[in-house]
Give the backbone structure.
Amino acid sequence: MLRRLFGGVRFHLLLFRARPGEAAEVDEAPLEGEAAEAYVERVARAKAEAGWRRMLQRNLPRAPVLSADTTVALEGRILGKPGSREEAAAMLAALSDRVHEVLTAVALKNEDWLESVVSRSEVRFKPLAAAEIAEYVESGECDDKAGAYAIQGRAARFIVELRGSYSGVMGLPLYETAQLLEKMRGRSPR
């Protein structure tokens, strides 16, 4: 999709997950009292910095590093990735018949330049029955997802209304990504 939308932009994935027994390269735990928008932007920027370091450590050709992070906020409370299926079910029950925010920060790092932007969307869920929540959680789609759901999957049937960016709720707001790429191109020699 990035290639199609951004005129043939070439990219490589820099995957980094902590191996068992190793500390994560980016701590995704919210800081005490941290607002959701500040949290998601801090994590996206930290991921871009970590990606840059990883690229240099692997002696890969230098190239801009793009990262993103998404969180769900309900009345100011951050609902990150659930730690268990029980926690996922509790998150979905809390989102039932309510409006929540989805915040996705995108960060772009190139040499000494680092910029970021946050996409903010509002999503309203229909009232969810306990059986619907249980079925969804059992599918496993809730795993490793902010707010315990994926808009592009089975949870689409829960969504009554979306105000904002569909791609932002998915995890990479394309409009904001394009803005960052253009900003970076504007400061680079052509």
Observations:
- The chain has a mean pLDDT of 91.
- Residues 120 and 184 are 22 Å apart (CA to CA).
- The first helix runs from residue 2 to 5.
